[in-house]
Design brief:
The structure holds two protein chains of two kinds.
Chain A (H helix, E strand, L loop, with lengths): L17 E2 L2 E9 L3 E7 L10 E6 L7 H13 L11 E4 L8 E4 L4 E2 H6 L5 H19 L3 E2 L8 E3 L5 E3 L6 E2 L22 H4 L7 H16 L10 H5 L9 H4 L5 H10 L11 H9 L18 H14 L14 E5 L9 H15 L4 E9 L13 H16 L9 E8 L2 H11 L4 E5 L9 H13 L3 E5 L7 H4 L2
Parallel strand pairs in A: 12-13, 12-15, 13-14, 15-16
Antiparallel strand pairs in A: 1-2, 2-3, 3-4, 4-6, 5-6, 7-9, 8-11, 9-10
Helix pairs in contact in A: 3-5, 3-9, 5-8, 13-14
Chain B lengths: L1 E5 L6 H13 L4 E4 L10 H13 L3 E2 L3 H7 L7 H13 L2 H8 L4 E4 L2 E4 L15 H11 L3 E4 L6 E5 L5 E4 L7 E2 L6 E4 L13 E7 L4 E7 L3 H10 L4 H9 L2
Helix pairs in contact in B: 3-4, 7-8
């Protein structure tokens, strides 16, 4: 460790060194900001997963910003829970021996995948959905990554995504050490959002922009705005939309172009409101509602670009909109389409209408769980699996229409299952649902006892809020006095 | 060593006891009173009693402008503040008054400086109310950590590369790493008279070993404290302030 004090070496450690009990192994990587080493923990502190040690580059000629980025990561990374970030095992004193020992994610770097771009659309969607799921996880913990790019994403064998390098990130409950250190150098030129270029570092929708740039690159093989080397070059994206991906790769389906261009909108409020909504669309390409931009084959013309440019400069001095507290909740409504005349339906519709009135941006997922038919039951067309499915989707459509929620924010699903509780809970979890709304039959409705057990099962086991709607039963005094 | 930072108690014994209990539950080994033990509230004697006992056991206590006013009247005090100081003078024992007048304006225990107002000129009672006053205070303190009160709202200032100070408004209960290679100035908030429309008592807990600070807001019986003020014949406005946190 004496070598650290002579100030000559960029890196303090060499393979074979023992740092606070950790044995430094071979060097894995040398990057702009530092080094990664394989490392082994002392036997009594072995966490049971492979480790690496990240060491910042310090010494003459190193930009101060790289050490601040290391400091930011050292603050934020240990606070993150879940699978979207590597687990931290130990950190060293920033002045004496700066390092972070963390979980080594074994998988494939998205940078390697990006080399092979353009990738098939379904693979782009699968990877994009995994990144969006990971964003949901970190955004829920008040962290904005601010440097989402292929080099910073690892894909595990199970398909899930993990972010590396939180050196540009912002945590809403921690001081932002980078806020005044650097006015623009936030994120990487090819992926950085327009608002980050204006020094705004607290908007989760910046990560959605970067995700859009990554999807664009995976789908076309090119980055949407090139790799500008100057701030002026980067500022283009504050008003300019990129060339439509389909112009570069006609094999890209309209729904994927719709998702990518919506992520990449210059204005944060015109992008997806939250990562959970992006994740939903990428998991369910069929329910992406297409607009004009889905089939666009050329960028907006000169007039529109000029108009945008002009509005951009006029608005550049306007006060910024604050970060939305809860951008767009995802609401799942369980609708019993097997009993379309049930008195619960008006009550459930009224309750759903109230919930979406409070959250106009919400995404509404309407689900009908159809009980799987017993073998040999029925042979008419409407009893076959596909015929039954269509009939229930049609009933869902009739159910949701009176609510007048924008079709772009609604989706309908008829799912055949013998276990409605697990089906609803799985759907809710996979789609980051914030609220489940469902009806419960009154005690008099004996034939609906099955639904009563669904309501109690969902309520007992949901990870989110549950709104159980009942039709009020008149207070029967005679019954009470018995 | 975990130190509880208790500023601007302002003769509110209900709030003080709640904060001390809260801090001890979280492993506080030492208490630091950052000035303004008296003024505004009705429990001057009780508060001075607790603090003087704690000082005998190793606590730090700093003098605030209201503590100084017990001895020498302050021309800039408003009517209600003056009434509360007059009342404190009548209720405090000579021993209590001696204790208050003997308090230091600033204490440095490297790596920490304790002061009521600004370390730049503690006796002038300047407010640390922005980046430039914070930078001056941090510079004058000369230690990695400066803890003060006087301003009743919780704020954490930190130096950036350019030598400026940035402000951060903390969330109650969220630990913040405060590495000692930077300089940090924590305004602990007011135990006895918060003014951010949140009546809960404010204090902070500093963990020197882990280099971490956590700001807290603590529930206590603000109504009881307000009733004490009313019962003492002090201006009604002072009771309201405590109940509503204004």
């Amino acid at each position: 460790m004496d070598r650290a004090t002579d100030g000559e070496l960029r890196c303090r450690y060499r393979p074979g060194d023992v740092v606070d009990g950790f044995t430094v192994g071979p060097r894995m990587h040398e990057g702009g900001n530092g080094y990664l080493f394989h490392v082994t923990a002392p036997a009594d502190r072995d966490p049971g997963f492979p480790l690496l040690m990240k060491v910042p580059a310090i010494g003459p000629g190193e930009p101060a910003i790289s050490i601040v980025g290391f400091e930011v990561e050292e603050m934020i990374l240990p606070m993150l829970r879940g699978r979207a970030a590597p687990r931290v095992v130990a950190t060293g004193d920033l002045l004496r021996s700066p390092y972070i020992v963390m979980e080594r994610i074994d998988g494939e770097s998205l940078a390697a995948k990006a080399q092979a771009a353009p990738l098939p659309p379904d693979e782009v969607a699968r990877i994009g959905a995994a990144i969006a799921d990971a964003l949901v996880e970190i955004h829920a913990q008040d962290v904005v990554h601010l440097d989402v790019k292929p080099e910073n994403v690892m894909l595990r064998a199970d398909g899930s995504a993990v972010f590396l390098d939180f050196g540009f990130s912002q945590h809403a409950r921690l001081p932002d050490l980078l806020a005044e250190e650097q006015r623009y150098a936030a994120g990487s030129a090819a992926y950085v959002s327009p608002e980050q270029l204006s020094g705004r570092r607290n908007d989760p929708r910046s990560d959605i922009f970067a995700l859009g740039a990554v999807l664009y690159e995976l789908a076309t093989g090119e980055t949407p705005f090139g790799e500008p080397a100057t701030i002026a070059g980067m500022r283009d994206r504050m008003w300019r939309e990129p060339e439509p991906p389909r112009a570069l790769n006609p094999d890209i389906p309209p729904w994927l172009q719709e998702v990518i261009l919506r992520c990449l909108h210059p204005k944060a409020e015109r992008r997806y409101p939250s990562a959970s909504v992006v994740a939903f669309d990428l998991h369910h390409p069929d329910s992406v509602s297409l607009t004009e931009r889905s089939t666009r084959s050329a960028g907006p013309g000169f007039t529109r670009h000029f108009g945008r440019w002009w509005r951009h400069w006029r608005e550049a001095t306007a006060p910024e909109t604050p970060r939305p507290a809860r951008a767009a909740p995802v609401i799942l409504v369980a609708v019993d389409t097997e009993h379309p005349d049930d008195p619960r339906h008006p009550a459930l519709q009224a309750a759903t209408r109230n919930v979406i009135a409070m959250n106009p941006e919400s995404r509404l997922i309407c689900v009908s769980v159809i009980r799987a038919p017993r073998l040999g039951e029925g042979d008419a067309m409407e009893d076959t699996a596909s015929g039954k499915h269509l009939e229930h989707v049609a009933r869902l459509k009739r159910w949701v229409e009176p609510l007048r929620h924008p079709a772009a924010q609604s989706s309908l699903h008829a799912v055949e299952s013998g276990n409605a509780v697990d089906t609803l809970l799985d759907l809710a979890h996979a789609n980051h649902v914030d609220l489940i709304v469902l009806g419960a039959p009154s005690p008099e409705q004996a034939r609906l006892a099955w639904w009563r057990s669904v309501a109690s099962g969902v309520t007992a086991n949901a990870r989110c809020s549950v709104y159980v709607v009942r039709v009020p039963t008149p207070n029967d005094d005679a019954a009470d006095s018995r | 060593m975990r130190i509880a930072l208790l500023a601007d108690v302002h003769a509110n014994v209900h709030a003080l006891e709640a904060c001390i209990a809260h801090a001890r539950d979280r492993g506080a080994e030492r208490l630091a009173f950052l000035g303004d033990l008296v003024g505004y509230g009705a429990d001057a004697r009780e508060v001075v009693g607790i603090v003087s006992r704690e000082v005998e056991r190793g606590a730090v206590a700093i003098k605030g402008n209201h503590d100084e006013a017990v001895q020498k009247s302050q021309g800039y005090f408003n009517e209600a503040a003056t009434a509360a100081i007059d009342w404190a003078r009548r209720t405090l024992t000579p021993e209590d008054t001696r204790f208050l007048s003997g308090l230091p304006l600033i204490v440095r225990e490297d790596p920490v400086t304790f002061v009521h107002a600004s370390a730049a000129a503690p006796e002038r009672w300047d407010y640390v109310d922005g980046s430039s006053t914070a930078a001056r205070c941090i510079e004058a303190a000369g230690t990695p950590y400066t803890f003060c009160g006087h301003v009743h709202d919780q704020v954490l200032y930190f130096t950036t590369g350019a030598g400026r100070a940035s402000a951060f408004v903390p969330t109650s209960g969220a630990p913040i790493p405060v590495r000692s290679h930077r300089r940090w100035l924590a305004i602990a908030g007011s135990v006895g008279q918060p003014r951010d429309r949140n009546p809960r008592a404010a204090y902070a807990l500093f963990d020197g070993k882990r280099e971490e600070i956590t700001f807290f807001r603590v529930d206590y019986d603000a109504h009881a404290a307000a009733e004490r003020i009313r019962g003492s014949g002090l201006p009604e406005s002072l009771a309201f302030r405590v109940e509503l946190g204004i």
